[in-house]
Amino acid sequence: MNEVVVLTPERILEVTEDVLRRYGLAKATVVDVARALDVSHGSVYRHFPSKASLREAVAKRWLDRLSAPLLKIAEASGPAPARLEKWLRTMFSIKHKRLGDDPEMFATYLALAREACKSVNCHKDCLVDQIALILSDGVKQGAFEVADVKVTARAIFDATSRFHHPAHAEEWNEPSAPARIDALLALLLKGLETPRKR
Amino acid sequence: MNEVVVLTPERILEVTEDVLRRYGLAKATVVDVARALDVSHGSVYRHFPSKASLREAVAKRWLDRLSAPLLKIAEASGPAPARLEKWLRTMFSIKHKRLGDDPEMFATYLALAREACKSVNCHKDCLVDQIALILSDGVKQGAFEVADVKVTARAIFDATSRFHHPAHAEEWNEPSAPARIDALLALLLKGLETPRKR
């Protein structure tokens, strides 16, 4: 019984992820992807004109899944300080969980980050924009005092790198990590606060 | 004309640094060090009982040279906020300069950091202690409000990782780096400040 499966970009990306998990970024080829799909590599190239474009697309898909729950927090209502803390803690825990659940794709992501791949850069910018959105709300609410929302959002992203940048992944399970995260977040939130009126 | 050179630990470490620069951490052996010194490897082992102990010692020597100018700033007098900012900027510039001037030893240091070598851990602790010293002064001066000086010192060390941890070295020469450092330091200093009385 032959079933005709339509070759969609989504189907190609799904299978590419599996292939990357199995072979790793360095070894996986478009031919491997085509073989896993049981199609010619020409069929894959029809959707993704190069190995690089396929890589970009698969990274984007993986990263979009990662940032979707964060966008919900950024766009929610409620007091900005609590929202910022929740957003940062959720980002840390999503990344930590990915590292545990999907180490092969995590390594692939790290390699793509090192190549300064476009999807990874967009992903970072998009996360900084989400922080900026929360900061703007905080300023409107009178809770935050921030001169330049975009610049400060980037500073918060930079300041928390130790707990979200894959280069530091080995430290995330250290026993001292939770207390260090608490101290860091307290310091950053205090730095954003509008000075208390007396 | 033969000159008798006494084989001191300092002389061994000096030559080991050269050997590491030439061959890299993975390939350099105690035999290479002995050959460069024109002594038997037994003579080296008399001072450093293992390759690991020699490695530790050479890392310690390199790192001590790096942290000496920082200690001077930490132990100086004057207003703590300016001193903390100067200390952090000096740490960044020392590390950036080392990366430019001595990339081979920098790579060795990164490899040792990944192995969680004792000297590198001590070095980190020692830097955090220096930050803590400045924070204590700031609390005494009434400039900083800090609940736990040691914990907050570690938070500042973590928060600035992007600009001193060798894993991020590739970003240090990006055009955006100076402005990002300014924004980060402003945020951290504001987070330490005693709330303004009105």
Q: Using the alpha-carbon principal axes, give the shape of chain A.
A: elongated
The CATH class assignment of the largest domain in chain A is Mainly Alpha
Q: What structural class should be given to the helix and strand makeup of chain A?
A: mainly alpha
Radius of gyration of chain A over alpha carbons?
Answer: 20 Å
Number of strands of chain A: 0
Q: Please give the oligomerization state of what you see.
A: homodimer
Pick out the low-confidence regions of chain A: none
Name the largest protein-protein interface in this structure: A-B, 32 and 32 residues
List the main descriptive attributes of the protein structure presented here.
Arc Repressor Mutant, subunit A; 9 helices; 2 domains; Tetracycline Repressor, domain 2; homodimer; mainly alpha; HTH_TetR (chains A, B); 198 residues
Compact description:
The structure is a homodimer of 198-residue chains. Chain A contains 9 helices and no strands.
Protein model, in words:
2 copies of one chain form a homodimer. By secondary structure, chain A is an all-alpha fold. The first copy, chain A, has 2 domains: 1-49, Homeodomain-like (Arc Repressor Mutant, subunit A, Orthogonal Bundle), CATH 1.10.10; 55-192, Tetracycline Repressor, domain 2. Chain A has helices at 9-23, 30-37, 41-47, 51-75, 80-101, 103-114, 118-140, 149-159, 177-192. In chain A, helix 4 packs parallel to helix 7 (118-140) and helix 7 (118-140) crosses helix 8. Chain A is elongated, with a radius of gyration of 20 Å. The N and C termini of chain A lie far apart (79 Å). The mean pLDDT of chain A is 90. Chains A, B: Keywords: DNA-binding, Transcription, Transcription regulation. Chains A, B: Residues 6-66 form the HTH tetR-type domain. Chains A, B: InterPro entries: DNA-bd_HTH_TetR-type_CS (IPR023772), Homeodomain-like_sf (IPR009057), HTH-type_TetR-like_transc_reg (IPR050109), HTH_TetR (IPR001647), Tet_transcr_reg_TetR-rel_C_sf (IPR036271), TetR_C_27 (IPR041478).
